[in-house]
Amino acid sequence: MAVSSTSRDPLGPEVSDEAVRSTCDDASQCKRYAVNMGYWKDPYIQHFARHPKERKAPEISRGYYARVEGVTRLVKAFLQKTDRNCQIINLGAGMDTLFWKLKDEDLLPGKYFEIDFPTIATRKIHTIKFPQPGLHPLCHHWRRPPRTPQARGSHEEMRPGPRVNMSDRFGQIMIDNLQSRKCSLIGVEACLSLDTQRQRFLQNGWEGAHAMDMVEVYNALPPEDVKRIEALEFLDEKELLEQLMLHYCLSWATKDAQDLGLLEITL
Ligand SMILES: C[S@@+](CC[C@H](N)C(=O)[O-])C[C@H]1O[C@@H](n2cnc3c(N)ncnc32)[C@H](O)[C@@H]1O
After folding, report:
1. Ligand 1 centroid, distance to 115 Cα (angstroms)
2. Could you report the per-residue pLDDT of 180-216, keeping only the tens digit for each?
3. Whose CA is nearest to atom 17 of ligand 1?
4. Where do the segments described as Disordered lie (predicted)?
5. Where are the domains of the chain?
6. Nearest to 70 by CA among 263, 194, 214, 232
7. Whose CA is nearest to atom 6 of ligand 1?
8. Which is the closest atom of ligand 1 to the Cα of 161?
9. pTM of whole model > 0.85?
10. From atom 18 of ligand 1, which residue's Cα is the shortest distance away?
């Protein structure tokens, strides 16, 4: 868990931890909204996020759909290659519900960790211990000891969301918006392109690295499912969605000492 309050980024303006923590509610409310609209199924999100009062733009829901589906597909491919003899460490997990969705499909890895600020983690634990009655049940033995043998020494790291193409005008507007909320993107200078994202992994000891912008991710999802979600809400400004998605990417890196074929994992 990270512990600090308000810090000054040596490279930029003041960063407020509270503003960073508030992105947890932004994410979970957007997910809850999209789930309610039928973009994907998640019976657990209702425990962790209230249904937002205001309507969310379809661009937001489609963007989250691509992110949730993309990450879930990569995680499942990793679990399959390792035969679940692995561990997942979810950094900045917020109110993410992937743990329960994997559990429902009997796909849990040997160990599953979530890391976030103490206040966020405490809130999540409280919700798990005292779930709202009448909602889809949350598993009580949610952090059971591993059923699988010792984790194999193979790794995959995934980073959904670090931004790319931040040096263009659209990227600058996104940075300004976040900074006005005291939410600096520390390290954004390194997020120039998909190639710099891959190089960051390779220069830090990873053997294989991939990066796809969210337009590519969206286009790699099953066409019948994309058709289904595109029929849910009318989207006027397709260009805006593309612009947004060109500034986010899904990147993942692998080390595969046991030659399990992790390098082949792709969407
Ligand atoms: C945009 S939210 C995403 C939450 C979740 N992964 C999801 O997709 O719903 C980012 C999360 O990262 C957490 N976070 C950001 N910086 C952090 C840090 N330095 N230490 C711990 N958690 C951090 C925030 O508190 C927040 O819950």
Report:
1. 8
2. 887 777 788 888 899 999 999 999 999 999 999 999 9
3. 92
4. 142-163
5. 6-264
6. 214
7. 93
8. 1
9. yes
10. 2
